[in-house]
What we know:
Number of helices of chain A: 5
Strand order of the largest sheet of chain B: 4-8-5-7-6-9
Radius of gyration of chain A: 16 Å
Shape of chain B: globular
Structural class of chain A: mainly alpha
Largest sheet of chain B: 6 strands, mixed, barrel
Order of helices and strands of chain A: HHHHH
Oligomer: heterodimer
Strand content of chain A: under 5%
Order of helices and strands of chain B: HHHHHHEEEEHHEHEEEHEE
Largest sheet of chain A: none
Helix content of chain B: 25-40%
Helix content of chain A: over 70%
Distance between the termini of chain A: 33 Å
Distance between the termini of chain B: 30 Å
Amino acid sequence: xxxxxxxxxxxxxxxxxxxIELSYLDMSETEKLELIAIIHSHLHYTILDLVLSNLNTxxxxxxxRHANNIDHQETWKFLNEKIEKAEEKITNAVKDVQNELLKDxxxxxxTKKAA
Amino acid sequence: MDKAVxxxxxxxxxxxxxxxxxxxxxxxxxxxxxxxxxxxxxxxLKKKNxxxxxxxxxxxxxxxxxxxxxxxxxxxxxxxxxxxxxxxxAANTIIPQQTQPVxxxxxxxxxxxxxxxxxxxxxxxxxxxxxxxxxTDIATTLSSVFHMKVSxxxxxxxxxxxxxxxxxxxxxxxxPGDTIYDQINQNSSTPISDGLAPGLGAWGYFAPSKEQMTQxxxxxxxxxxxxxxxxxxxxxxxxxxxxxxxxxxxxxxxxPDNGKAIVTDIGDAGPAPFTGKHLGGSPEVMQYLxxxxxxxxxxxxxxxxxxxxxxxxxxxxxx
Lengths: 115, 319
């Protein structure tokens, strides 16, 4: 994939797992990319919701100023100061979404086998 | 701040058809098995939209607070497909240039909340006549969102404004002898208390008799609006021509506070300027848009629909 934005949480997203599973299904590369784009959007909102829900109003503004910086270290430094176990919470949220989507793929495979 | 807001509301939109009506595992209409892609796309889009809706609802205060309005939507609704190679430079960055046009074709609006945010950012803080650039911008947006051509001016004719306060009208007599009890029954969604206007609408009865009333006549009354035709530029000099133009002319009415939209027709002229209102909606129109009269009244956007072949049905329109 080209042109993948690099957000502060990008390294925590294991989209490769889902990409591999999608490769077992019957779809074109463009279709796979479209699905992965949906996943990224889903994760984006999930992670932002988690972060913003754990910050007060002033910290939200500061976070959003940081969040789009290239230097993600600053962002993580801020998050780690403000949210206990920030990385762990984000990783768990991402895993939950990933597991949910993997289940959808598995359910589809089962349905196809049964058909 | 632009960058911050853009980051927050980065949307990973898809260039594909977002209006799939496929029901797993078969197309409703053709009974053909659906593809793996469409099956997952439908499911995952639904989940994503749900998360997104909750996010916007939960954090709307900070989102509205963050960015000056004229920056907001250009950045909010961008980044349609950042993971695909698309021609627009905007899709390759989370930080769009302020001067870049928003490419709605790549970032289709899929929820009322998104449309509401988009419109609120384009509208002035006060309810006032829009400037020509504002009208054009909003009309272009709504044309794209609803796949119909809407504009503030059609066939060289326009109203005095396209953004104003809407008030509630009463029902209009559809044919001689029509009563409120004929219009409202146990299946109606609006109450009898909305009442029947004492006089006829600007175009008279919708049908010559009850027996001759068609479904179209009925829907014209149901989804009518009253607009200030008499304030249209050129009205006094061209009453005949303008009257024909305005008679049952279809207009798209949108509530920017909730993103709801409805296809209406001009069924009456009014309200009087001294009321402080700029147009009126039938009880059904008001109910659908969640607009009320009185102290809680609010504004709507109203634009002509270019529908020369009369193919666009009257009534609520969804995304």
